[in-house]
């Protein structure tokens, strides 16, 4: 009943008086990402990390490294490994369901990391009972236990043929949305702009399929490594043009496939032509006036003499 890889945790899930043996497997992995080592630019050799005493500058051996809680500058409460281990809550390896809730009751900002929650072959019936009951009632389960040396709250949901357990962040770990968005001014969007935005959103409506999206950063890194091996340099990408407030309406119209009206252009062309004719008329009149003045000048000089 296991999935690929090694179980991160083995224990039980309990709801009411029903208990099923289960295991947690990481649902995501970063092992396929491109990774780097730190090397010496001059020699090309890999460098190693070393812990040194901040005051003496001397290396500190692993057995002499302990946890320290900072009180103020350069003052710490030292905690020995056995003291830290003793502070870990006792665990009976049981995910106890505290409540069943509507699937969308929890803000996703509290989601931490997903795990596949799989059954042991000895508890498949109890596992299937929980899964089908939750599926029929369209609910998720909130459970708690000690995971990875910490008390964790877990959201359990049905998924395909099994269950997914997502660890949840605690309240103090999630930053305030009000604080994050406090600098955003109140702007009312209405009229044609709002209608066009809704139209564009409607035309882009679809469904999510993970295999349709690629990791552009990983692809860019692979391209960079390949270029370096071949002695090439990659062209610099121009930053995207940010839409200004004055350009929003035109950008929305263009996004919606609405061409700019030809009538204003015709009016503008007529106005431009009229302006040109007026300018030409003024110019011709000025030339004629100058010419007339030039002809009359000798006659005036004769009368004067």
List its salient traits:
305 residues, alpha+beta, two-stranded antiparallel sheet, extended, disordered C terminus
Element-by-element helix/strand order: EEEEHEEHEEEHHHHH
- What can be said about the biggest beta sheet? 7 strands, mixed, barrel
Strand order of the largest sheet: 1-2-6-9-8-7-5
Measured on Cα atoms, how large is the radius of gyration?
Answer: 37 Å
Structural class: alpha+beta
Mean pLDDT: 82
Strand content: 15-25%
Which runs of at least 5 residues are low in confidence (pLDDT < 50)? 297-305
Shape: extended
Helices, by number, come to 7
Report helical residue fraction: 25-40%
Number of strands: 9
Give a quick precis of the structure.
It contains seven helices and nine strands. The protein is α+β, with helices and mostly antiparallel strands and 305 residues long. Helix 4 runs parallel beside helix 6.
How would you describe what is shown here?
This protein has 305 residues and is an alpha+beta fold. The chain is built from 7 helices and 9 strands, in the order E-E-E-E-H-E-E-H-E-E-E-H-H-H-H-H. It has a 7-stranded mixed β-barrel with strand order 1-2-6-9-8-7-5. A two-stranded antiparallel sheet has the order 3-4. A hairpin with a 2-residue loop joins strand 3 and strand 4. Helix 4 (191-203) runs parallel beside helix 6 (248-255). Mean pLDDT is 82; it is low at 297-305.
């Amino acid at each position: 009943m296991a999935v690929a890889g090694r179980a991160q945790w083995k224990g039980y899930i309990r709801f009411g008086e029903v208990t099923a043996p289960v295991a947690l497997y990481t649902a995501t992995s970063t092992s396929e990402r491109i990774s780097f080592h730190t090397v010496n630019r001059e020699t090309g050799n890999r460098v190693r990390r070393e812990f040194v005493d901040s005051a003496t500058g001397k290396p500190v051996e692993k057995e002499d490294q302990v946890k320290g809680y900072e009180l103020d500058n350069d003052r710490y409460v030292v905690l020995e490994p056995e003291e830290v281990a003793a502070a870990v809550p006792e665990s009976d390896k049981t995910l106890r369901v505290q409540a069943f809730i509507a699937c969308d009751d929890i803000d996703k900002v509290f989601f931490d990391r997903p795990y596949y929650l799989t059954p042991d072959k000895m508890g498949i019936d109890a596992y299937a009972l929980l899964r089908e009951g939750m599926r029929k009632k369209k609910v998720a389960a909130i459970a708690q236990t000690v995971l990875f040396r910490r008390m964790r709250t877990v959201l359990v949901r049905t998924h395909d043929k099994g269950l997914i357990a997502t660890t949840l962040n605690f309240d103090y770990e999630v930053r305030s949305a009000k604080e994050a968005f406090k600098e955003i001014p109140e702007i009312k969007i209405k009229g044609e702009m709002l209608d066009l935005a809704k139209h564009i959103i409607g035309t882009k409506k679809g469904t999510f399929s993970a295999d349709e999206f690629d990791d552009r950063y990983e692809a860019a890194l692979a391209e960079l490594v390949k270029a370096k091996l071949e002695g090439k340099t990659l062209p610099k990408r121009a930053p995207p043009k940010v839409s200004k407030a004055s350009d929003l309406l035109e950008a929305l119209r263009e996004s919606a496939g609405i061409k700019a009206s030809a009538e204003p252009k015709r009016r503008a062309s007529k106005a431009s032509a009229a302006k040109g004719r007026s300018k030409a008329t003024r110019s011709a009149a000025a030339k004629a006036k100058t010419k007339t003045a030039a002809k009359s000048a000798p006659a005036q000089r004769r009368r004067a003499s």
